[in-house]
Design a protein that fits this description.
Layout lengths: L2 E5 L3 E6 L11 E6 L1 H11 L3 E5 L1 E3 L2 H12 L2 E2 L4 E3 L6 E5 L11 E5 L16 H9 L2 E5 H6 L1 H12 L6 E5 L4 H4 L5 H7 L4 E5 H8 L4 H7 L5 E6 L3 E6 L4 E5 L2 E2 L7 H14 L4 H16 L11 H8 L3 H6 L1 E3 L2 E3 L13
Parallel strand pairs: 1-4, 1-10, 2-8, 4-6, 5-7, 10-11, 11-12, 12-13, 16-17
Antiparallel strand pairs: 2-3, 8-9, 13-14, 14-15, 17-18
Length: about 350
C-alpha cells in the first residue's frame, strides 16, 4: 500500500453551537482542524497508509488531536508532545443566517504554539526519520512556512533533499493573517522546489500576483505539475512540458466551503499515488471536495467504494451532468451512444 506523510500544524477547533454568533454562544463544540492532517485523513479514507507528523502541547487539546487522528486511521508515531508550549487553537465563526453571503470566518490563537517550534531537528526524531524513509509521498503546505523561521528551515531542508523515489507535494494554502508583515516571496521559492504544487486560483493572485497559467508556470518552472484549483469551475494540471489537463468541477449544493481544498488535495494525491492519470486524479479531487462542500465539518464522508468507482469511471458527458447534494451523488444514465469511457 502506498504511504503518505503529511507534516504541519493541527489545532483544536472551537465552533459556536447552533450557528450562534460568537458573542452570544454559551456552548462551543470542540473538534480538530489543520490542512495537513485533513489531507492525511482524506488519504486514509481513500485507502492509503497515511501518517501525520507535527507537534502538540501536553494538554487536553493535544490529546484530542492524537486520538481523533487515530480514529480516522492516521498514524501518529511521528507526533511530538511539547511539555511547555501549548496546542494551537482556532475558533470557527459560522456564517450568520442574516448574512449568509458573508461566509464563515476563523480566529487563530497559534502564536507560540508547540507546532511553531518544528525545526530541522524534528526530522532527526527516529520515529519521523523512519516514516520519511518509507514514504512514497511527503505533503507540505505554505501554512507551515509562515509559522516560524525554524518551520521554514524544516520545509527547505525537506524540499532540497534527494527524493530517493519519493514525491514531495506543496499546497500553497494562502493565509493572509499569517503572512502579515512577512516576505511572501518565500512561498514561491518553496513551491518551486516541490514535485507537485497545488494552488487555488483565488490564492494565486495574493500569493504570486497573477492567475495567468503561463505566468504561474514561469514563476514555478521546476515542479512536474502545477495544479490550479479554479473554484467551482474546474481543476487544471499544468505540466512542465507545456501540456495541460482540465477537468470540470461537479455541480454541488454547497453547505459550507471550509475544508474543500484539503479534500481536493487528498483526492487528487491519492490518484497520483495509485499511479492514475492526471484526469482520473483530478476527478478524485473533485469528488472528495464535493463530499466536504455538502457538510458543515472540514471533511465529508465519501460514497461507498463501489459507488465512488462508478462515479469516477463515468463518461465525460455523465460527469458534466452529475449533481451532488448532502449524502447523494446523482449520476445521469449513460446514453447508448456514449459507451463506456474511463478516465
Amino acid at each position: 500500500m502506498p504511504t503518505a506523510v503529511c507534516i504541519g500544524e493541527t489545532m483544536a477547533m472551537l465552533t459556536p453551537v447552533n450557528g450562534l454568533p460568537l458573542h452570544r454562544a454559551e456552548e462551543l463544540h470542540c473538534s480538530i482542524g489543520g490542512a495537513e492532517s485533513n489531507v492525511a485523513m482524506g488519504l486514509a479514507a481513500m485507502g492509503l497508509e497515511a501518517h501525520w507528523v507535527g507537534r502538540v502541547g501536553h494538554d487536553g487539546f493535544g490529546t484530542r488531536i492524537i486520538e481523533d487522528l487515530k480514529d480516522h486511521g492516521v498514524g501518529v508515531t511521528g507526533v511530538e508532545v511539547d511539555a511547555s508550549l501549548p496546542t494551537g487553537l482556532y475558533v470557527k465563526v459560522p456564517a450568520q443566517y442574516s448574512d449568509p453571503d458573508a461566509g464563515s470566518s476563523v480566529l487563530y490563537y497559534r502564536q507560540g504554539s508547540a507546532a511553531s517550534a518544528m525545526a530541522p531537528a524534528t526530522l532527526a526524531n527516529p520515529a519521523v526519520a523512519e516514516l520519511l524513509g518509507k514514504a512514497g509521498l511527503i505533503h507540505l503546505s505554505g501554512i507551515t512556512a509562515a509559522l516560524s523561521a525554524d518551520c521554514r528551515a524544516l520545509l527547505e531542508l525537506l524540499l532540497k533533499a534527494p527524493r530517493d523515489g519519493r514525491l514531495i507535494t506543496f499546497d500553497v494554502n494562502w493565509r493572509p493573517a499569517l503572512w502579515a508583515g512577512q516576505d511572501k516571496s518565500v512561498l514561491r521559492q518553496l513551491a518551486n522546489l516541490a514535485d507537485i504544487v497545488l494552488v487555488g486560483k483565488d490564492e494565486a493572485e495574493h500569493a504570486f500576483g497573477t492567475t495567468d497559467e503561463s505566468e504561474l508556470r514561469a514563476l514555478m518552472p521546476d515542479p512536474a505539475v502545477v495544479v490550479i484549483k479554479n473554484e467551482a469551475i474546474s481543476a487544471i494540471a499544468l505540466h512542465r512540458d507545456g501540456t495541460r489537463d482540465e477537468v470540470p468541477a461537479l455541480s454541488v449544493e454547497i453547505v459550507e466551503p471550509v475544508g474543500a481544498g484539503d479534500s481536493f488535495a487528498a483526492g487528487y494525491l491519492s490518484g497520483v499515488l495509485f499511479g492514475l492519470s492526471q484526469k482520473a486524479s483530478l476527478r478524485r479531487g473533485h469528488a472528495a471536495a464535493a463530499c466536504t462542500l455538502t457538510v458543515h465539518g472540514d471533511r465529508g464522508p465519501l460514497p461507498e467504494a463501489a459507488a465512488l468507482a462508478a462515479i469516477l469511471e463515468c463518461s465525460d458527458e455523465q460527469w458534466a451532468g452529475i449533481r451532488v447534494s448532502p449524502g447523494h451523488f446523482e449520476v445521469p444514465e449513460a446514453t447508448p451512444a456514449e459507451g463506456s469511457v474511463a478516465p
